[in-house]
Write a structure and sequence with these properties.
Blueprint (H helix, E strand, L loop, with lengths): L2 H13 L6 H11 L6 H15 L9
Amino acid sequence: MNAPLIDRVRERLAAESAPLRPSVVAAAIRAESGGVLGDAEVLTSMRELQTELVGAGILEPL
């Protein structure tokens, strides 16, 4: 998942008042990618985005 797509998804999720359920995050990824990602790509993107949104972000493993 490229940085501009991560930024767009993050902005979309911040603008919505819905809880960050996996279905909401997946829908945001699909919408911001133009719907061209398959299921495997969406799951990979969700994992990448989770490291950005949860805990200390990319510093969490440290």
